[in-house]
Give the backbone structure.
Amino acid sequence: MTEEASETSARRSRITPERQAELHEAVLDLLREVGYDALTMDAVAARTKSSKATLYRQWGSKPELVAKALRCTQPVSLGEIDTGTLRGDFALMVAHSDDAQMAKDTALMRGLAHAVHESPELHKALRDLLVDPEINGLQQLLQRSVDRGEIRPDCPALDFVPHMLIGAFIALPLIEDRSVDQAFLGEFIDAVVFPALGV
């Protein structure tokens, strides 16, 4: 690590995990209140009693701050789940889901949908910091299942599991005007994902 990189890392690590969680929650609260376009670093600084310089030093930009705040709401990374069976892995994923948090996240993502189309920087930050890590974790989870012989390596549905799961979160509010919860997620996986994978 270069001296410059070490100094940057030291500066970024000054905020405690508790303070970071507090800042992230404040960002999400502001997002719910005013939306992405009206969210400013000034407002975040005022809400969290911190300086704008600290926010920029720690997160770099508004899109990065928003993406990391959303990332911190994830209860567990899919890449960390490994129970030894695909059914066990998905059951644990559902068990770690929180109905109230999923409802909040769904509302936030719906609110960000328009902003993503207007802001390439936000789109990139969400992909890099939130979407891609979860898809990579899901692919690792599925690959372990293939290696164990639970799913055929040539199963055509393997590439579409992320689309199925993301689609469920988008479709349910549109079709039934309610957010995804543990009960729906479990039923959806049993009725749609497992049959498609031949499990």
